[in-house]
Write a structure and sequence with these properties.
Blueprint (H helix, E strand, L loop, with lengths): L3 E12 L2 E13 L4 E5 L6 H9 L6 E6 L2 E2 L7 E5 L10 H11 L4 H14 L15 H14 L4 E5 L7 H18 L2 E5 L3 H7 L2 E6 L4 E7 L14 H23 L1
Parallel strand pairs: 3-8, 3-9, 6-7, 7-8
Antiparallel strand pairs: 1-2, 1-4, 4-5, 9-10
Helix pairs in contact: 2-3, 2-4, 3-4, 6-7
GO molecular function: ATP binding; ATP hydrolysis activity
InterPro entries: AAA+_ATPase, ABC_transporter-like_ATP-bd, ABC_transporter-like_CS, ABC_transporter_ATP-bind, P-loop_NTPase
Protein name: NitT/TauT family transport system ATP-binding protein
């Protein structure tokens, strides 16, 4: 169980002889077991924010803490899943999960047992000995999720994890992630361009604005759990989706004027 606290965060990149400000004064806290989606128009810094939380990028000022402790690079307290599957092609599904566990210092027997448990969690136990080239896109992403969860992180950071999947597979993965989250109660930061996906999955939706990236507004998702497919047709779901889209489009319109 974990709380992720981002306070006064500022980030810039060197572009030629100048520095370009990417994130400004980001204050965001994810509570224990909370599922928070980050949305916004392209270029607002969503992925940069997630990479900083993962310890994969540095920042200019501010702080990032897990349970009050400042992060110092990547750590086993945070699991990360990207849009690209990042599986090692010469290893089977099981071996890809075991690879992460070996790095965490687990014994061979523990690696085998935990990998089997997590492949079963994502419903891939029958494909444990398959190589990535033998798996569909959705299956590869399931392996990536199993790997990220296998070393029991406190926080799961996901950057457009279903963005490369077809619509049907994407929906299946959303249902799978919802089931896993409801069972294991992880703290999740989820970056997505898909507002419907954000509403379906989240407890809270954070809209980021442009120029430079900042938190524009936050929406509470007051929809009952467990979430089900038919909920997407409800009046409350549709109205919240409309409000979030309007907030994003306001930023896009402002950027067009600039």
């Amino acid at each position: 169980m974990a709380t992720l606290e981002i306070s006064g965060l500022n980030k810039s990149f060197q572009v030629g002889k100048q520095r370009r400000e990417v994130l400004r004064d980001i204050d965001l806290t994810l509570a224990d077991n909370e599922f928070v989606s980050i949305v916004g128009t392209s270029g607002c810094g969503k992925s940069t924010l997630l990479s900083i939380a993962a310890g994969l990028e540095d920042f200019d000022s501010g702080s990032v803490r897990v349970d009050g402790v400042p992060i110092a690079g990547p750590g086993l307290d945070r699991g990360v899943v990207f849009q690209a599957y990042t599986l090692l092609p010469w290893l089977t599904a099981r071996q890809n999960v075991e690879f992460a566990l070996k790095a965490a210092g687990r014994s061979r027997a523990e690696c085998r047992e935990i990998a089997a448990e997590h492949l079963q969690l994502v419903r891939l136990e029958k494909f444990a000995d398959a190589y990535p080239t033998e798996l569909s896109g959705g299956m590869k992403q399931r392996v990536a999720i199993a790997r990220a969860l296998s070393y029991r992180p406190k926080i799961l950071l996901m950057d457009e994890p279903f963005g490369a999947l077809d619509a049907m597979t994407r929906h299946q993965m959303q249902e799978l992630l919802t089931r896993i989250w409801e069972t294991h109660r992880l703290t999740v930061m989820f970056v997505t361009h898909d507002v419907e996906e954000a509403v379906y999955l989240s407890d809270r939706i954070v809209v980021m604005g442009l120029g430079p990236g900042r938190i524009k507004t936050t929406f509470e998702v007051d929809l009952p759990r467990p979430r089900r497919e038919e909920m997407a047709g409800s009046a409350g779901f549709i109205e919240l989706q409309r409000q979030v889209l309007r907030s994003i489009r306001e930023e896009e319109a402002g950027a067009a004027v600039l």
